[in-house]
Design goal:
There is one protein chain. This protein has 962 residues and is α+β, with helices and mostly antiparallel strands. It folds into five domains: 223 residues, DNA ligase, ATP-dependent, N-terminal domain (DNA ligase i, domain 1), CATH 1.10.3260; 128 residues, no CATH class; 165 residues, D-amino Acid Aminotransferase, Chain A, domain 1, CATH 3.30.470; 160 residues, OB fold (Dihydrolipoamide Acetyltransferase, E2P); 169 residues, no CATH class.
Length: 962
């Protein structure tokens, strides 16, 4: 990428600096050109490995790290002792993306115009602005160097008079113009005395060589990757098929810290004080002993591992003796620092996940934090009684969520609530969504409503009253957290958590991971975070393990939508290491006028393009799609393109580079559904493309339209339609039954998901060979030393029942399948058909002698014979065996299905099958909550159905454990 220009190496820069050191032109301190020599050397030696090249694990190639070691030694040899602050400056310049203090509000387009003006080359503005177009480098820094090489008067061995201190100070001044920069940066350059951006940029660039200017450009853009790790081949086919994303080993800040400080002291500090400035300052201060968390400095957030299945997630914590599954809430991360002043008042600092100080953005939750900690809003009153456990300070981990009617609302609601309550640059007026059709929920029409508020879910505590809790086990930290936080109904809660059974085969009363995760998916929640009870905060021995639906193949939300446009996206392209001639991003839309097309087949389709997707396809599939599109008929993106369809694009969405004349169908999956600001339609969250079909395989007409997508999203989110409350009120007013809510199928969905999760893990374990750990997590039969699952022998079912207020003798079942329930049945309750006298179902068996009919029952098989059965038992293995006993056509997937099958439906219910004599519900004995729910549901339905004829009785059987 640097052909045609002579660029000095590290040793050449060293010699040149020595020659210049006696002149007035030499910079004071470490020259910026000397720093750039490090970057230049890394770029020259970053040779990507081709796909299929065998890597030597014992001698892995890491040229960037080797070069940094040599450069650091030369730096300390030439410029020792290093001036205070050198560590922070070097790391800020080497890892500009980690510099959370400085924001420049300048991306490529704006910076290109500013640089063309700075260098007085307006004729080159177009070349700079087209940095990302097909045929260009895809890197503004590279384009700047090419332009300056043709116009610069500097000699090839020129060294800039700027030192790294000078450049760092000018970057601070430039960042002071952004309201998103840290307050400390803006305070150094008050608005009244702040120079214009153009003058600052001129001072930064005018004395730099083309090479120095190119790297400085990428530092301002906070991304050195395209210059540090240049592409060796720009053709998309070679780039995608001959290389992969791991072709180059990129330098990490952790490895750089190990080089800078071989004693690893700086790295240890960074885990506690995780901003580069603060970690560097603490390191240079030479503080010994344990470093304490400090109010106002973010603590490093633990990096979570991804669980690719329930079994895989548990294996990452198999050394733990106590595992908790904590609900992962769909919110924005907030690390809350609170300091109590001497007068009782308190100051709050809130850091986002990116470590940016977002205290003003989240001003709307400051009062909530104090209330949850039982602290006064202002100074402490002498007569007030505050029971707060926080005496001096506290650091808390929380998720900021949106609350609505006592429940956590959808994630996309947070943004507008923050903008509505923020102080400063993020404060914004309420934004209305684009108009939507009548099938969309009315709540989608606005991002903010009067009955929605920001709330908090607390899940960890890191510091309390000057005591660091980072090394305290998670179980103990949670206990401390519970003693500190006062839940507030509908606003503040503690994250729900559940202990996980570590051995299903034992009498562990805790649920298995599959059950807990299935409940999480059915709710639906974002996912789970598995945590070891004995783990400290950010403990490498016991990492946090995320378990989300989209991490496991086949469990994410999947839809078929239409691809209408394509473009090159710089972020995704740099991950894939492809030039701008490759399409990395696909623009997704839905059919907007499906009803019109049904009425008028000759009408033109109208598509609404409202989100894009850059992930999911393999490199080979992406290359095939690129070839397909490049050899098809595409047009520039404008309304007058002469397309056979019409379209509109969501305002704020960057338009595609090219539009497809013939749309393609794509299969996408994601982690639930969300909504972009100002949009009236649901889209997949974290969308990924599974496949893009050729027109000969499947047509775009096979995709779902926006109306159907809305229904799919609503079902996935367990949301009722917006007018359901009104309809239910009207039905109640006129004495009609209300329709079941979206959550009525949750129990059945949970059971089905649990069984599927277990079946998938069992299949994977069987394929690779069963282990003792697999048996503990998956099997109710396998004990230590068992190689794998084995079916038990059939066993008789002892039964005690008041079926018909009678007793059934205990006899074996005849003709049982190979897998038979291990548990016995007890306590059967009969709900007669609604036409029967209701008293028969509610009589006390002690007051009425057993009926003659029940005495002559000779087997539980008489109960199951000719019955529709809903297995509501909790144990998944036993539940599966029950289903194996019963023909599939007589297994009801849910309680609602069973009631409808027995003729107890609410509206327009078909009559029961003539061959079906009763309904049977199987429950666990002792599961009182399930008993209460079922009894309540059946009694309510019986009352609603009244004296309807032709219905069948429902029997509740309870399994008694052996």
């Amino acid at each position: 990428m640097y052909s045609g220009s002579r660029l000095a190496t590290c040793s050449e820069h060293h010699a040149l600096y020595v020659a210049m050191s006696a002149t007035s032109q030499a910079p004071r301190g470490v020259p910026f050109s000397f720093f750039v020599s490090l970057l230049r050397e890394i770029s020259l030696h970053s040779c990507p490995r081709k796909t299929g090249t065998r890597r030597d694990k014992h001698n892995a190639s890491y040229p960037a790290l080797d070069i940094l070691k040599k450069w650091t030694a030369r730096l300390r040899s030439q410029f020792s002792p290093l001036a205070p602050g050198t560590t922070a400056i070097v790391f800020r310049l080497l890892f500009p993306g980690e510099d959370a203090r400085r924001k420049y509000d300048m991306q490529e387009t704006r910076l290109a115009v500013a640089l063309a003006d700075c260098f007085g080359i307006p004729a080159k503005t177009k070349q700079l602005r087209q940095w990302g177009m097909d045929g260009s480098s895809g890197c503004l820094g590279e384009e700047v160097m090419q332009v300056l090489n043709s116009s610069s008067s500097h000699a090839s061995d020129y060294i800039s008079p700027h030192s790294i201190v000078d450049v760092d100070a000018l970057l601070d001044e430039l960042a002071s113009h952004s309201g998103f920069s840290d307050a400390s940066v803006r305070a150094r350059h008050p608005h009244a005395t702040r120079r214009p951006k153009a003058l600052i940029i001129r001072d930064l660039y005018r004395s730099l060589s083309p090479l120095d200017a190119s790297f400085l450009t990428q530092i301002i853009l906070k991304d050195l990757r395209p210059l540090l790790y240049p592409l060796t081949d720009t053709h998309y086919t070679v780039a995608l098929k001959s290389f992969n994303s791991a072709a180059v080993t990129e330098l990490t800040k952790e490895d750089a810290m190990r080089v800078w400080d071989p004693g690893h002291r700086m790295l240890a500090i960074y885990r506690v004080r995780s901003r580069l400035d603060d970690a560097s300052a603490t390191f240079e201060a030479g503080i010994t002993g344990t470093v304490m968390p400090q109010i106002g400095i973010p603590v490093e957030i633990p990096k979570s591992e991804k669980g690719r299945s329930c079994l895989h997630a548990m294996k990452m914590l198999k050394a733990s003796q106590e595992i908790w599954a904590e609900t992962k809430y769909d919110g924005e991360r907030a690390q809350i620092h609170l300091q109590v002043r001497s007068d009782g008042s308190s100051s709050i600092t809130i850091f986002s996940k990116s470590k940016r100080d977002s205290s003003l953005d989240r001003h709307g939750i400051h009062g909530l934090i104090r209330e949850a900690l039982c602290l006064p809003k202002g100074r402490r009153s002498e007569h007030a009684d505050y029971s707060s456990k926080v005496k001096t300070n506290v650091i808390l981990d929380a998720e900021m969520v949106a609350w609505h009617k006592g429940k956590i609302d959808e994630f996309w609601r947070i943004r507008s609530l923050v903008e509505h309550t923020a102080v400063g640059v993020r404060h914004n007026r309420v934004q209305d969504a684009t108009p939507v059709d009548n099938y969309s929920q009315t709540s989608l029409m606005t991002d903010v409503s009067d009955d929605r508020d920001l709330g908090l879910v607390f899940f960890d505590i890191l510091l309390l009253n000057d005591e660091s809790l980072l090394s305290v086990p998670y179980s103990s930290r949670r206990t401390r957290l519970e003693s500190v936080i006062k839940p507030i109904t509908g606003q503040v809660i503690l994250a729900e958590r559940q202990p996980i059974a570590l051995n299903i085969a034992s009498n562990d009363r805790n649920p298995g991971i599959h059950r807990v995760f299935a409940q999480c998916l059915a709710c639906p929640e974002e996912g789970l975070v598995l945590k070891a009870g004995e783990a400290g905060y950010n403990d490498w021995r016991f990492p946090w393990v995320k378990l989300k639906r989209d991490y496991i193949p086949g469990y994410g939300d999947c839809v078929d939508l239409v691809v209408l446009g394509v473009s090159w996206d710089k972020e995704r392209a740099r991950e894939l290491r492809v030039a701008p001639n490759a399409y990395t991003t696909f623009y997704i839309g839905g059919l907007h006028n499906a009803e019109q097309l049904r009425r008028e087949p000759t009408a033109r389709p109208h598509f609404h393009i409202y989100f894009s997707c850059s992930y999911g396809l393999s490199r080979d599939h992406l290359e095939e799609v690129n070839f397909l599109i490049k050899n098809s008929d595409t047009v520039p993106c404008n309304p007058s393109s002469g397309l056979p369809f019409t379209f509109d694009i969501l305002p704020g969405l960057v338009p595609p580079t090219r539009l497809l004349r013939e749309p393609l169908l794509a299969e996408l999956f994601g982690a639930g559904f969300t909504k972009s600001p100002g949009s009236g339609h649901y889209e997949l969250r974290f969308p990924r493309i599974t496949k893009i079909f050729r027109t000969g395989e499947r047509s775009w007409r096979d995709g779902i339209n926006l109306q159907t997508l809305h229904q799919v999203a609503r079902d996935s989110l367990c949301k009722d339609r917006s007018d359901k409350d009104l309809n239910d009120w009207g039905n109640t007013l006129w004495g009609k039954p209300v329709s079941p809510g979206a959550s009525s199928k949750r129990k059945a969905v949970t059971d089905e998901l649990e069984e599927k999760l277990i079946a998938d893990d069992r299949k994977a374990a069987k394929k690779r060979g069963w282990t003792e750990f697999d048996a503990r997590i998956l099997s109710t039969w396998a004990r230590s030393g068992t190689a794998g699952p084995a079916h038990p022998r059939p066993q008789p079912l002892a039964s005690r029942t008041n079926l018909g207020n009678s007793q059934i003798p205990s006899v074996p079942l005849g003709a049982a399948p190979q897998t038979t329930p291990l548990d016995s049945l007890s306590k059967a309750r009969v709900y007669p058909s609604p036409g029967s006298p209701p008293l028969a179902a509610d009589q006390d068996p002690a007051r009425k002698p057993p009926s003659t009919a029940a005495k002559h029952q000779d087997s539980i098989s008489a109960v199951l014979a000719d019955a529709l059965v809903f297995v509501a038992a909790q144990n998944p293995i036993a539940r599966q065996r029950w289903k194996l006993m019963i023909p599939s056509e007589r297994v009801a997937p849910s309680l609602e299905s069973l009631l409808v099958g027995c003729g107890w439906g609410l509206e327009n219910t078909p009559p029961p099958s003539p061959g079906m004599q009763r309904g049977v519900i199987v429950l666990d004995d002792g599961d009182e909550s399930a008993q209460m729910r079922v009894n309540k549901a059946v009694n309510q339905r019986k009352a609603l159905c009244g004296d309807r004829s032709g219905t069948k009785a429902v029997v509740i059987l309870q399994r008694e454990k052996c």
